[in-house]
Every structure is written in C-alpha cells, then in structure tokens.
Amino acid sequence: MTLRALLALPEWAQSVRVLAGTAGLGREVRDVRPSPGPAPDHPVTQGELVVVAGPMRPGDWRIDALLRRVADGGGAGVLLPVDDLLEGTRRLGDRLGVPVLVTAEAPLERLVAARLALAEPELDRAELLLATHEALTDRLRPPEEIVAVLSGLLRAPVALLDDQGGVLAGESGAAGLLRPGEPVPQRIELSDGVLLAHPALLPSASRPALWLAVRLHGTAAARAGVVPPALAVAAGAVQRWLLAHRLELERDARSRSALLGDLLRLDAEPDADLRRRAADAGWRLGGWHVGIRIGTPASVDNVARGADVARALRGEGIDAVVVEHGDGWTAWTTFAQEPVAGQVRDLAARLRAAHRELGRSVGAHMGVGRPHPRPEGLAATIAEAGDAARLAATRPETGHFLHVDQLGMAQLLLEWTRTDTFEPAARALLAPLRELPGDLVRTLAAYLDAESSLAETAAVLGVHRNTVAARVQRIERVLGVDLRRRDERLALHLACRTVILADEHG
Hints:
Elements lengths: L2 H5 L2 H4 L2 E5 L10 E5 L12 E5 L9 H12 L3 E4 L6 H10 L3 E4 L3 H13 L3 H14 L6 H12 L3 E5 L4 E4 L15 E5 L2 E8 L9 E8 L9 H38 L7 H10 L6 E8 L6 H14 L5 E4 L3 E8 L5 H18 L6 E4 L3 E2 H19 L8 E3 H14 L4 H13 L5 H10 L4 H8 L3 H15 L6 H19 L2
Parallel strand pairs: 2-3, 3-4, 4-5, 14-16
Antiparallel strand pairs: 1-5, 6-7, 6-10, 8-9, 9-10, 11-13, 11-14, 11-15, 12-13
Helix pairs in contact: 3-4, 6-7, 6-8, 7-8, 8-9, 10-11, 13-18, 14-18, 15-16, 15-17, 15-18, 16-17
C-alpha cells in the first residue's frame, strides 16, 4: 500500500494533510510504527512510516533530524501531531523527497487505521460493499437517488450515463469519457485519476443501455481497486429499477394504444365511457387537432424511446400527446380554436426542428396532418399524418419530413412532370450541374424544398450552411439563373424532382 492509498482511507482523508515531500507519496508503506518523539535512537527501516505519538512543537530541531534518518533508512515518510511546520522543515522534506504528514487529531488512531489497512487489504473493500448493499437493496430507488447515495458513500462524483456517454443523472465529470465499444466493466486511466464504469444491462438487451460511472481524483484514485464491487451492487439497483419501470411503461403503453385504437375506430360521437377514459389519460377531444406520425425502423425500442420523443417535442414548445403505435409513435397537438395559416406554418417548422433533434438518437421519418376539429377530426388528421409519414420515409431530399399542406403541391408538381417530353428537357437543363462535383442537383432540390432556407438545407444534407451557400452561388453561376425569380425556381424545382425520381426508379 502506498502513502497515497493511506491518505484515501476514511480515517485519514479528513484529518491528515501533506505539508512537504509530495513527490514521495507513491512510496510503498511496509510498516507503520509509533515513536514517542523524534528521538535519534529510533531506527528507521525500509518502507516504514514513522508516527510520532508524543506532543511536540512545530519548531523542534529534532524533526529535521528525523527527516534525514527517514531518508537515509529508506523510510516511507513521517506523521507528526502538529498543525504546521517551519518553512525550512518543509523545504528539507521536499529536497529529501520524504513525505511529511501532519494531523491535529490523535495520531495513534491514524496508526491503528493504517495498520488495519495493511494487515487486511480487503477490509475497506468489504466495508464499502456492505455499506452499499445495505443502502441500496432495501427498496427500489430511482436512478437519481441511487447516484446520490453512491456518491455519498464513495465521496466522489458519480454519474448515470447513456450508451453514448451522455449524463442522465449525477455530476457531469464523466461525460464523454466512456468507451462503449470496449469490454465491460471499464477502467479508464485519466491524467488526474481514473474513471470506473459498470453497465446496467437488461436481460433482453444485447448491449448496455446505461452505465454507472465514478471518477476518482487525486488521492481518491488509490481506492480504484476497492470501488468496483460497490459499483456493481449499485448497477444492480439500477437494473432492478429499469425492469420495474419497463413493466410500468409497457402496461401504460398498452392502455394508451388501446384507447387510441378505440378513438380511431369512431364513426360517431364517443360515448360517456370513452370520454371518461380519454379524460383519465389527460387527452382533450374537443378543439382542433393536428396529427403527427413518427415512423421508425423495427429495431427501435419504441417503449423505451418514447421519453425521447416527448422531450424533443417539449424542447420546441409543443404540447402533444404521444402514443406508442405500431413501428413508431402517433401523436397530436390540440388548438382551442381553429388555427390560422401562420400558426400551422409555425407548428410545422417547430415539428421539423423536433424531428431533427430526435434524429440525433433515433432514425425516424415524420408526417404531419392538417387541422381537423372534434373527436372525429382526430382520426382524420392522424390518417393524413400516417400517409405523409409513409411518403416521408422515401424522401431524403425533404429530410424524411412531410407536411400534408406541402405534400399536395409536391404531388401536383410530380403530375406535371410525368410527360414524355419533360424528362429529357429536365436532364438537359440540369446537365451542367451533373458534370460537376458536390452533388449539386440534390443540393438544389433540397434548397428549393426548404424554401431557400440555408439552415434547413444544411440540416437535411448534413453539411455546414456555408457549404450550402457556396453551392447555391455556384449553381446560379453555372446555370445562369437567379433563384429569387419565381418562374426560374418553379422550372428548376420541377426539373430536379423529375430527374431525382427517374434516377431512383432506374
């Protein structure tokens, strides 16, 4: 055991300070022996930590003599019952590389704790493991409470991380340090300590969804060998909460999905029982509804990811009901009065932004319906949103997002382009762009779909807005057009759609 490890002991951490010789804290401590004072007749052995038990003054000349004897004998350091030292003594300790520790409390108690740690290296581990087990296994606790309890036991920052290393609960000191692709549990050496991480793995999952991580700084890093069993116990407490929470989520999802199914099958006014069930769920049936459909690949766990959808919508100020439904989610938001065109456009813009945010963690396509009133209108707008979402799944140029109000014009444009003469003309018009690098045809299509928004086009293409601006300028220069002119925009929009559609269908 090193001096640094001794300083991390609970009995030492709050009462012992290092005043000199910090360069020697990595020395191995082989023995801890008391001395009634800094007497010259005390022989110092290799690896010995000398604990001076008798009272003494900080200016006692015998302290300097003791430091020299410790250095000559290869000792690990000295522990003195003083509050401070003379500056000359500090400099001597630094020059000799002999750690000088001081304590204002009874040094013999520190000696007993050190001897126990040396004689029983597993004692600290066992005590921490027992304390963690007693604190976390008495009942189900939410992750935030588990993190707080463990942080108090370890006296170190603890965090609950997602599979990408993002902090879900606790302190952010472990953010971005996790290595998801490496074996588990993990021990990651840092410049100022060590990061320990243990996965919380559900029985049906192939990879960890959550990690419990602790970052040990400075002298606390010496306990890195003691902490893993306690971390595993705490990760088990997280797993138990996840399983219980998952059952609750699935029961709630089945209930909500059944209620939604009953509403969508309505062909008349809902009866009293259905209205009561909707009210119990907090769903408004009156007013004007705008349906939202979010489709996902079959591999996405929609029950577990439902909170991500609600969070993305709330982030854009959208108060919506979200229901797990098929391969994805069905949602809607409700206006008290019929929304005007500006409100609908604003909602669509915010939904597009929420879709982009959701796309950072879940591959999804989104469709949005038009406003419809009353309970029967809810089924109509959700059906429109579903149709739009199915088309959005095949439209990368729109960012896999479609609003029914925009879809009507898009479908009309496509009908105009389905003639024998338009495709050759469209190809000839865009030929100069197809000969140049930079995927200019797709950039032009996305730019026109986004109503000339550089930011929106950049988000769809996954490039910087300055890149889009440079490409648009190049397109105007190569084709000799002005994209501010409506007629030229319409012609180019038709041409892009025709060429892209034809290319996708061979």
